[in-house]
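Anyone have tokens for HDOD domain-containing protein? Sequence:
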Amino acid sequence: MTSPRFNLEVLLRRIGDLPPLSQAVNKALELIRNPKSNLAEVANVLALDQSMASLILRWANSAYYSPIQPIKTVHQAVAYLGQNAVQSLILTASVAALMDRPVPGYRLDRGELWKHAVGVAGGARLAAQHLGPQVAEEAYHAGLLCDIGKLAFEVLLRTLDPFEGSWQQIPFDYLERHYFGVDHATLGGELARRWNLPSPLPEAIAFHHRPSLAGDGIVLAAAVHVADAAMMMFGIGLGRDGLQYQLDLRAFQVLGLDEGFFDYMLPRVSALIEEAEHYIGLMRRG
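Reply: yep, here.
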């Protein structure tokens, strides 16, 4: 077995094609942590952005959120969803352009990584919702960004062409660890730290395949892990490594859930993904 050619610092320095999260996204994360944020002001800003207004209205009326009465205005949608959920949708829209690309190394066509990310995010929120709105929204953010490391590896693969092009035939669990020295989860967690995302989000991203090792981030990591496994089972963003996914049953214990949660989760997350696909279609045309 050969030693990895790159350490974590070298990998991070070589990733020049992945931009940091925008100021708007970082501001949204600040608002989530600020109990004094004004929902009316947020609604006024969203109402001026046609694509964001459409996104908020469609998702507020979706089966995922299940309103009793149709929601007709952005102000009604913001009031119904609440600050945390609205800011999560802003983060989702901001990440969309980054995620809406093919990831050929993982055999993911354009849009598949995006759908998988939204599905994991929504599923993680559902898995953590009984722990309170703050934890649920943090789980959503961790789920949305949990596979960001895959994009980083794609950048490096295009640049370095390891194994003279034969890397596409090599299992990615081997390629990540033995060629790059880290897996996509670890790299994603480090990217989250460099983007100044608050703890325990980086830990949840780094350990979403091994939630038992997540330390203080174990609850978020467990929520993302369960949702990620569900998306693989549903065939959403399966790619080349989906069938190798091993479910850590301790994640259910940490969350106080059982495997019946998947039946509860599927129709709700499917509705969220449907709205995400609609939004990404508008973004591509716009």
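DSSP finds 15 helices and no strands in the chain.
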